[in-house]
Design a protein that fits this description.
about 325 residues, alpha/beta, Rossmann fold, 8-stranded mixed β-sheet, 10 helices
C-alpha cells in the first residue's frame, strides 16, 4: 500500500500558517449566537419566550459572550497599534496598521443593537477596512443601553467627530464615517446631526446591514424571517420598541431611525452593503431612497448569501472581499 505523498513545506505554505485558524464546532457557534441573542431560541413557537431580558445583568452576560466569541473568531492582528482617546462621556481608540497613511481616518461605530459590542469585538473588521483603504481608524466605544439611552450614543458620535477635526486636526476631506448594524444607524444619525449643527461633512460614508428602520415595518422583516440566521422571530421589533420606550421617542424618530431622516446634497457619497437574505434588507433600501431623495449620492450592494453584518465575521471570505470593496470606495473619495 502506497502512502500519499507528503506535501513539501514551501515558503508560501509557511506564510499561510500564522493566518490559519481551526474551525469552530457548529455547536459552539450556535451556543455563542444563542447567548448573543439574549438566550432566545429562534425556532421557539411561543412568542412570549422570544423576548430577551434587558436587565443590566442579562445584557452584561451577552456582552461577555460576544467578547469571548469574537476573540476566537476574529482576533486583533499582531501588527495593530492602539492608543486610547478620552471623549467627554466615553472612550475611543485610535488604530493603525502598517498600511495606514497618517491623516486619513475612518471614524467607526460598532454594531450590537445599542446594547453590546465594542472596539474589541469589531477589531478584525476595522483592521480589514484600514488595510484596504490605507487609513487609520478611530473606533468609538459609545454609551449603550440599558445604562444609557438614546440620544446618548448620537451625542458621543458628534463628540468623536469634533475630536477628530479639533484636537487631532484631521480635515473633513480626510475622514470617512462608517459602521455595521446599529453602528451603521449611528453613522447615518451623525450625518444628520452634523448638518443640523452646521459642521462640515466627511468625505465618504459606508454602512453594512444598517439597523436604520426601528419601526421594523419593511417587507423583509417578514419575508426574510425564515432565511435570517442571526435573529429569532420577534427579537428585532421587541428590542426596537424597548429602546424607544426607554428613550421616550417614537420608533420613526429620524435620529432613532435614520431611514426616516432628511438628507441633503452636501452629504458625502454613501455606500450601503446588505445581505439579500437578512431581515434588515428593507432598512438598507429605505436608507438608499431617503438619501437619494435629498440629492445625495448612494449606492447599494447586496450579497446573496451572507449573514447579517458579515464584515465582522473574519472567517468568512465574504467579509474579506467586502472589506476590500469598501476600502476601495473609501480610498477613491478621501483626499
Amino acid at each position: 500500500m502506497r502512502l500519499p505523498a507528503v506535501e513539501t513545506l514551501t515558503t508560501a505554505a509557511l506564510r499561510r500558517i500564522p493566518t490559519w485558524r481551526p474551525p469552530l464546532p457548529q455547536a459552539v457557534i450556535d451556543r455563542a449566537l444563542l447567548r448573543e441573542r439574549g438566550g432566545v431560541h429562534p425556532w421557539h413557537p411561543d412568542p412570549a419566550r422570544t423576548a430577551p431580558s434587558y436587565s443590566v445583568r442579562s445584557i452584561q452576560r451577552t456582552r461577555e459572550a460576544m467578547e469571548r466569541t469574537q476573540r476566537i473568531m476574529d482576533p486583533a492582528p499582531r501588527d495593530l497599534k492602539r492608543d486610547q482617546i478620552q471623549l467627554p462621556n466615553c472612550t475611543a481608540e485610535r488604530l493603525r496598521v502598517p498600511e495606514s497613511r497618517a491623516g486619513r481616518v475612518i471614524l467607526y461605530f460598532h454594531g450590537g443593537a445599542f446594547l453590546r459590542g465594542s472596539t474589541d469585538t469589531h477589531i478584525g473588521a476595522i483592521a480589514r477596512f484600514m488595510r484596504a483603504s490605507r487609513c487609520e481608524a478611530v473606533s468609538v466605544d459609545y454609551r449603550m443601553a440599558p445604562e444609557h439611552q438614546h440620544p446618548a450614543w448620537v451625542d458621543d458620535a458628534v463628540d468623536a467627530y469634533r475630536h477628530l477635526t479639533g484636537e487631532l486636526g484631521i480635515t473633513p476631506d480626510h475622514i470617512a464615517v462608517g459602521g455595521d448594524s446599529a453602528g451603521g444607524s449611528l453613522a447615518l444619525a451623525l450625518l444628520q446631526r452634523l448638518h443640523t449643527e452646521g459642521l462640515p461633512q466627511p468625505a465618504a460614508a459606508f454602512v453594512v446591514s444598517p439597523w436604520a428602520d426601528l419601526t421594523c415595518s419593511g417587507p423583509s422583516h417578514t419575508e426574510n424571517s425564515e432565511s435570517e440566521v442571526m435573529f429569532g422571530p420577534g427579537v428585532i421589533p421587541h428590542c426596537a420598541q424597548w429602546l424607544a420606550d426607554q428613550a421616550g421617542v417614537a420608533t420613526d424618530d429620524p435620529l432613532f431611525s435614520p431611514a426616516f431622516g432628511t438628507y441633503t446634497a452636501d452629504m458625502p457619497p454613501l455606500r450601503i452593503d446588505v445581505s439579500t437574505i437578512e431581515q434588515l434588507r428593507s432598512d438598507a433600501h429605505r436608507v438608499e431612497d431617503a438619501y437619494r431623495a435629498g440629492g445625495a449620492t448612494a449606492t447599494l450592494h447586496e450579497h446573496p448569501t451572507a449573514p447579517h453584518a458579515w464584515t465582522a465575521i473574519g472567517t468568512l471570505s465574504a467579509a474579506r472581499q467586502t472589506a476590500k470593496d469598501i476600502g476601495r470606495f473609501i480610498d477613491d473619495h478621501l483626499s
